[in-house]
């Protein structure tokens, strides 16, 4: 049997590099990390490098520490589509980090990536954010509060945390409503003390501040929004997406929304069609 021959791949086309355990902040003395998916060409400085738009992904975690690797296998396709992808952690409410710690961290991660744009061949002027569940709550709040001093930290203060597009999958948009909907879920009460503090009389105001539904303001420049939610969700009620959609429309914000028929929270929500919709939205608004 003769030896077969194939051509080499001098441009490393289609090859993706995973860069793990990048510490972007040490708020409260705790290292916060991210993982970056980038073209493999970045390993070799003698190869041509082209700047790419950035997609920041925040995995849902019930406001605990997100699992960085949860969606990496699916996010690889966005590198093939021309993006740099960063999936980021944030501080956990269960470890004593009440709101707005998680939001501060996500914004700090965006500023870190802009500060290190040259290192990772990121175009800092083209940034999208995508979140799921509690991560989508963070993504929506990030988009609605660009460079808001309430949520800024001293890290990379010369950089912006504004984004150019936002994707939200099954987000809590009305936090009070979400906790009321899941009040019989074990641990729900404990999580409220962790997120909102030990004085329940202060909770309504904090829940409202943490609810994207109530952060849409008149005469503001917001990025375009893509909202997706399963109508059989037993964790975050589907109507919260509809409410958010109508609120954004009322303020003349560009928004698209998809009802995923029969889908629960996470699980059967996901399909290649979801990723295709997300990529097409990003291509129109970020790329």
Automatic annotation (TrEMBL):
GO terms for molecular function: hydrolase activity. Keywords: Hydrolase. Residues 49-248 form the BD-FAE-like domain. InterPro entries: AB_hydrolase_fold (IPR029058), BD-FAE-like_dom (IPR049492), GDXG_lipolytic_enzyme (IPR050300). SUPFAM superfamilies: alpha/beta-Hydrolases (SSF53474). Signal peptide: none annotated. Gene3D superfamilies: alpha/beta hydrolase. The keyword Hydrolase applies. Transmembrane segments: none annotated. Pfam families: BD-FAE. This is Alpha/beta hydrolase.
